[in-house]
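[Discussion] Sanity-checking designs against the backbone

I'm trying to build intuition for which residues belong where. Below is a structure token string of 245 positions. I'd appreciate it if someone posts a full sequence so I can compare it with mine line by line.
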């Protein structure tokens, strides 16, 4: 389409200008800059045989010129190991953290992303049962139950996460073992439930994932200290040797 071509040309000009600002003494390399249908708000840059290849998330089509200029600076600074301009970084973060773009990104992830959700029924623990029990004990039963599942692999780094785009809580299968105390599994699920209650907020240009309210409520978990000790031990075993299960 002609309109898309015009946008690409404008992007090309923006990246050329940003390059001159960062590397005024060097000739501007050949560039191929375009929007791409990533699952997330992803932007990439690579140098191949003297040519720069840049792809920006198509969710950023229609972004204001100052935002696109900020993205150009950030990507080129990373590529050439230059110091990033804090004001430009803050400008980009504010834009991508805006309510409208965040909602749009979630919808796109739902449509494009293929997230394989396993079962909540493990060999030892049932995540749905644990969620319902925690919901009654700590949240007055007010949290709507998302999709719950054990991870497909025994992940040791990402122990649990809440995916708002797919409304799913996934817990590492490494916890579905008789040697893992129930309170440790409950603590992981409880932490992710707090993400349901306390969504990510924007504080200036920074995303606040674990707010003060979040952290205070997390400490109300009865076995908080014991669970933290267990997770530290698990982390140590993962870093030095295999866990005994």
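Best answer:
Here's mine. Compare freely.
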């Amino acid at each position: 389409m002609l309109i898309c071509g015009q946008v690409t040309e404008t992007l090309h000009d923006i990246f050329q200008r940003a390059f001159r600002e960062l590397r005024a003494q060097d000739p501007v390399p050949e560039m191929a800059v375009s929007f791409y249908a990533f699952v997330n708000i992803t932007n990439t840059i690579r140098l191949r045989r003297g040519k720069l290849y840049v792809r920006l998330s198509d969710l950023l089509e229609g972004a204001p010129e100052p935002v696109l200029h900020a993205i150009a600076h950030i990507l080129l600074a990373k590529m050439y190991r230059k110091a990033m301009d804090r004001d430009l970084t803050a400008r980009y973060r504010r834009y991508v953290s805006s309510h409208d773009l965040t909602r749009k990104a979630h919808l796109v992830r739902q449509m494009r992303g293929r997230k394989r959700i396993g079962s909540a029924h493990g060999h030892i623990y049932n995540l749905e049962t644990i969620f319902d029990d925690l919901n009654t004990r700590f949240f007055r039963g007010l949290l709507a139950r998302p999709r719950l599942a054990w991870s497909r692999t025994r992940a040791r780094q990402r122990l649990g996460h809440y995916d708002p785009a797919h409304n799913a809580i996934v817990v590492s299968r490494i916890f579905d073992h008789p040697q893992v105390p129930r309170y440790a599994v409950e603590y992981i699920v409880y932490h992710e439930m707090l993400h349901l209650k306390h969504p990510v907020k924007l504080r200036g240009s920074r995303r606040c994932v674990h707010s003060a309210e979040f952290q205070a409520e997390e400490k109300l978990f009865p076995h908080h200290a014991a669970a933290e000790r267990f997770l530290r031990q698990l982390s140590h075993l993962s870093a030095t040797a295999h866990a005994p299960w």
